[in-house]
Specification:
six-stranded mixed beta sheet, about 375 residues, disordered N terminus, 14 helices, globular, eight-stranded mixed beta sheet, single chain
Length: about 375
């Protein structure tokens, strides 16, 4: 059914090598596309590398929405389009972006494992759907971290708990040449927000303030031993965990990922990675496409009437399965192959706003 919709949307434009659907390397091609006489009802955007395109002072990566993207979302919200920001981040650092745009819309975090509805801001938003990790899967994750000597981070709805070799965070840099300890703290996801911890104390003063001010800090905890973290998991059934991350230097995390694939069958857990020095584990049924489909059903429409925008490996399913998937110019090759359209604009150039405006101009979103 989705393939039929794509064909009706785009006819048979050129494909990128290995692509699964019609592709447009340049947005000008959209002018010649024949789209069914209907409007899209839902727009869901990834954050990092997609909706975020502006930097605050001292940041090496975009950590705020561009003014154009913010304005585009504000306009669509006023016209009754249902919006969602969807990210691999934890809820609090995803929610803050919706709050920054002053919008009361859906916030989806942990790669789609948690959905918070409108009617609130910050921690006041209601949790409307979630896919928590099973206790046996968490036990496997803890054992993997212990066996491979990696840093383990466990994401709850409002915090991040950690255990293991925290010094990994400062022993390698990410793709932007930025120390990982600074990268985590800048987005408010520093895994060990504990005064006196050697990794915390090694941070520059301005980054310590970022950590202290993070909404995660009161709800996060660092465990000294893996036995302690397992005891916490066993003794806290009312605090479900939605994502586990294992962090180490890139060469070592690849070995950990291989061990994870061997220990966790796909029907037991969704193992993702490797990313820039870490891998992630979420519920086997959770991904961004599942979350967007649930949202569509919630608001009385279907996935065919949804637009998704993204750039990364964790965006593949929603780019491929939505009625219209749009990849950024800066997207990874796999995301471009999964999408219907590849924008010629990057996240720095407000690609989200530009692509949505073209759809407004063509009558497929309300003016």
């Amino acid at each position: 059914k989705i393939a039929t919709v794509r064909q009706r949307l785009y006819g048979t434009p050129p494909k990128l090598p290995g692509s699964r659907g019609p592709m447009s390397e340049h947005t000008e091609d959209m002018a010649t596309v024949v789209i069914p006489p209907r409007q899209f009802k839902v727009v869901a955007t990834d954050l990092d590398g997609t909706f975020l395109g502006e930097r605050t002072a001292g940041s090496a990566k975009p950590n705020l929405p561009t003014k154009e993207n913010k304005a585009a979302f504000t306009k669509l919200a006023s016209k009754g389009v249902h919006l969602a920001m969807i990210s691999g981040r934890c809820y609090t650092t995803t929610s803050v972006m919706m709050d920054h745009c002053e919008l009361d819309q859906y916030v989806i975090s942990c790669h789609g494992a948690i959905i918070f509805g409108p009617k609130g801001v910050g921690l006041a938003r209601p949790l409307v759907k979630s896919w928590a990790l099973a206790s046996d899967l968490l036990r496997t994750a803890v054992q993997l971290a212990q066996d491979t000597d990696t840093l383990l981070m466990l994401y709850t709805a409002t915090g991040i708990h950690s255990c293991g070799r925290a010094d990994h965070n400062l022993t390698f840099v990410n793709g932007d040449g930025e120390p990982m300890g600074e990268w985590w703290s800048r987005v408010g996801e520093f895994p060990i927000p504990i005064e006196g911890h050697p990794v915390f104390e090694a941070l520059p003063p301005h980054l310590k303030e970022v950590v202290r001010a993070s909404p995660l800090t009161p709800n996060s905890r660092h465990f000294a031993t893996f036995e302690e973290v397992q005891a916490f998991i066993d003794g806290s059934p009312d605090e479900p965990i939605f994502k586990a991350i294992l962090v180490a230097e890139p060469p070592r995390i690849s070995a950990t990922l291989a061990a994870a694939h061997g220990a966790i069958p796909r029907h037991v857990g969704n193992v993702m990675g490797p990313f820039e020095g870490w891998m992630e584990i979420i519920h086997p049924e959770a991904n961004k496409a599942v979350a967007v489909e649930w949202l569509c059903q919630k608001v009385g429409t279907t996935l065919e009437h949804a637009i998704t925008l993204g750039d990364g490996l964790n965006d593949l399913e929603m780019l491929q399965q939505a009625g219209l998937g749009i990849a950024m110019a800066n997207a990874v090759t796999e995301a471009k192959q999964a999408a219907n359209v590849v924008s010629r604009f990057t996240n720095h150039e407000s690609a989200v706003a530009k692509e949505l405006q073209r759809l407004v101009d063509a009558g497929f979103l309300p003016p």
